[in-house]
Amino acid sequence: MKRRIIEINEAKCNGCGLCAAACHEGAIGMVDGKAKLLRDDYCDGLGDCLPTCPTGAIRFIEKDTLAYDEAAVKANLARKQAEARQSMTGAEQARANSMSEACRSAAAAGKAAQADAAAPSLDTPVFHGCPGSRAMSLKKHAPIAQAEDAAAMPSQLTNWPVQIKLAPINASYFNNANLMVAADCTAFAYANFHRDFIQGRVTLIGCPKLDMVDYTEKLEAIISQNEIKSLTILRMEVPCCGGLEMAAKTALQNSGKFIPWNVVTISTDGEILK
Fold first, then answer.
1. Beta-ladder partners of 30
2. Phi/psi at 106 (5° precision)
3. Does domain 2-70 have CATH number 3.30.70.20?
4. Which of 4, 34, 149, 217 has the fewest CB atoms within 10 Å, i.e. is most exposed?
């Protein structure tokens, strides 16, 4: 099947290992001092590794290859954990066992003290997937009071379509525009999205995880063929948003233009992190 996976340029790789640490699937390993995609079916194509690479050695490609094999990934991760435990010294193994026993004792004591409470169970499954897909209940804020004389803020959107995949490269609204490339989820997470971000900007949105496409070429064409005044990249804190950030940065670099740009990161509970 043809699908998106990563490709690592060995000549550009400096052997830092950051991509291997960032890969939740264990698809990347260090071989002879260089990062290497160990198996195509270990790569889920989300690109958590892309924003960690300091040399730009990693990119997305479309390739006829095996489908992503979640079962094989889990088996590989379990094998690596087992090997790591086997490589421990006697003291390290004893310390790990002691900590595990302490955790079990603490959990048992907690259950006894709070028999009717929803105490965490040792049998609760551990989430191993992309952090962006993890189900969470977020903190609740006080309802917004609606004053009688407070008029609803009008939409600040000035362009259509807004999806990166659908926007025409030479649309007139790109000329002399302050361009914002935003992750889909940012509009839902950040309450004052229109006031603080859309206002005064041309907006494009996308999600590399859902679209399963590399936006670099499209964004490069937009920046290259239009008079863009500035670029704002608005992303969520989850790793899969790194693909969007990397695509926008690479597009700007490839365009050969020098314009002001910045990255703003939104937390899952709607706060600006940077």
1. 35
2. -65, -40
3. yes
4. 149
